[in-house]
Each structure stands twice: as C-alpha cells, then as structure tokens.
Amino acid sequence: MLKALSISGIVVILDQITKNIVKHQMELGESFNVIGSLVRFTFVENKGLAFSIVVSNLGFFTAISFVASMVVLYYLYKYRDEGISVYLPLALIFGGAVGNLIDRILFSKVVDFIDVGISSYRWPVFNIADSAVSVGLIWFLIISWSFKEKEETIEESPDESVNDHLSA
Predict the structure, then answer these.
(1) 88 vs 4: CA distance, rounded Å
(2) Active-site residue 159, yes or no?
(3) Is 115 a catalytic residue?
(4) Alpha-carbon radius of gyration of the chain
(5) Catalytic residue among 81, 130, 159, 164
(6) Is the pTM of this model over 0.90?
(7) How does pLDDT run across 130-165, given as a tens digit for each residue?
(8) Nearest in space to 134 (alpha carbons), one of 95, 93, 101, 98
(9) How far, in Å, CA of 155 to CA of 122, rounded?
C-alpha cells in the first residue's frame, strides 16, 4: 500500500509543480511549441472536467470527484497485496484524481497546458493529472479484461490439471 501511495504522491507533486510553473511563467492563453507544433505548452484554465468538458455545477462535480477518489483509494487498499501491474494503474488514477481535486477545491478551476495535435486538429489541452488518470484507467481496463479472460478459461476447462496449472 505504501508503494502505491508513494506513486500517487509523486503524480500529485509532479502535477502541482508543473501547474505552478505554468501559472508563474506563462500568461493565460500564451502558447509555445515544445516539439514543433505537434506538442505545445498552452496555458488554459479549465472550470470543467478533464479535457475541458464543460459541467454546469462544479460543486457537485467536485463532490463526485472526491467520492470517486475515495473509491479508488478503497480499491488500492483492497488490492494492496497484488502485484505492481494491479496497483500501479490504480495509483496513477488516484494521484491524478487528487491532483485535479486539489485545484478544484482551492481555485475552482484546473490549469491545463499540454497541447497536442497537428495544425488546427488539436486534442483538448490537458495536464499531468489528466494523463495519469487516462493511462491508469486504460491500463486498469486491460488488466481487468485479461483477468476476466483467465477466469473464463479456468471455468470452461473440464481438465482439472489445466485448472490447477492456470490457477498456480
């Protein structure tokens, strides 16, 4: 559990440091190329969800975000003895959720600055916390799917030696 919380803590620290650098070094709306025009740093403030999705009631959404973070924390505790492939995605999700939750509680908005795209075709601007949540969620879904496939294989196999082999 300590390893997972350490990873979440690193995500929160990196997220908060990068957002503070952007807030203090850039003007709102300022943009500059990092890797050509493919990757830019663009300072925007987001009062909605990840990737600038607009919400009408930020207070309600903040409360839901807090509850969701606590659910992820519960699963981190529940799977604390599993391998890194299970707790790392949960740790990334928890760290990213807490990083953005801090901003919503303190400032009622989130700083986004990573701007990816080609020419005028751009992905919504995001931050380290959004990245951690997205990577962790995709990773967790893949892990969940692979565990489900393994369980179905075990249940369908009539040969006990195969079941013993797969469950080992």
Answers:
(1) 6
(2) no
(3) no
(4) 19
(5) 130
(6) no
(7) 999 999 999 999 988 887 777 777 777 655 554 555
(8) 93
(9) 46
